[in-house]
Structure formats: C-alpha cells, structure tokens
Amino acid sequence: DNVFDDAAAAGCRGLIPSLFWNSFAFPDWVGEPRGRLYADDAEQTSSTWREMSTYVDVIVRRYARHPMLLMWELGNEYSNEMDLQPQPNSRIWPKLGTPAARTRADNFSSDQLIHLTKTFRGWVRDAEARVAAPPAPISTGFAVIRDAAVHLRRTYLHP
Fold it and tell me: What's the pTM?
C-alpha cells in the first residue's frame, strides 16, 4: 500500500507490478521444482500453481482500481530461461530454503511458457472482473529473443 500511495504522492505516472519477478520464488517457497510453475494443473495438485493463482487474485483485486496502476507484468525475462538445460548450481541458496541443486525438473519449454502466460492473463482478468475494474494492460516482461532461440526450441529435451 505504501509503495502505491508514495508513488502517487511523489507525482509518479504509474506503477507496473511484476507479480512473479523471480521464476524460482514460488516453487522454492512451496518446495517444488520450477517446472511445476509451467505445468497445466487443472486438477490443482501443484502447490506452486495454487499459491500463484491465489497471489494474483489477492494482489489484483487489491490494486486493480488504484490510480497508480499502469499495467500488470508476469515476471522478469522468463524468455531467457526457456528451452535450456539446467545449471546445477544456478540460483541456489540452501540456507535460505532452496534446493541444494537444480535438476531437469526445473526446466521449461517455450510451449510451457506460452501456456503460463495465457493462464496468468486469465487469472488477472478474473480478479479484475471480481472487483469490476477495467482491464489493465498486461506485459509478459519477456526479453528480446536470443539468437539461438529457434534452434533451442527445436532441440530442447523436455524433463
């Protein structure tokens, strides 16, 4: 609340909340591999999926009508991490609760990222509708595509 209110008081033009800035945050928090972030979980068996959808609902309903809201953002440059094989020591801090190593279960494909993006849009629109807020723009937060992206997508080995 303070961030939104302070931004308004300072004369800012708008804020773009990046709801899932770090792709490992929610999976690590609930003790699942990052791949659960991208799994189609219609049966709600993934704690990652459940917690993320709940988080979007709470945050969007709270700020959807705030005058400082410019748009919603999924996360920070997830497109840089798609279709890659894991780096065992990437983003690990076991003393803070992360796994001791990353595995293939932390990987995700382009197709899975597309699915997450569409799902995120649905979560945002549903939450906005519950508070009768006008739909705000949505950004993926993706980076400029890598030179090897097409090759990586064709050769990616799914977990």
Answer: 0.86
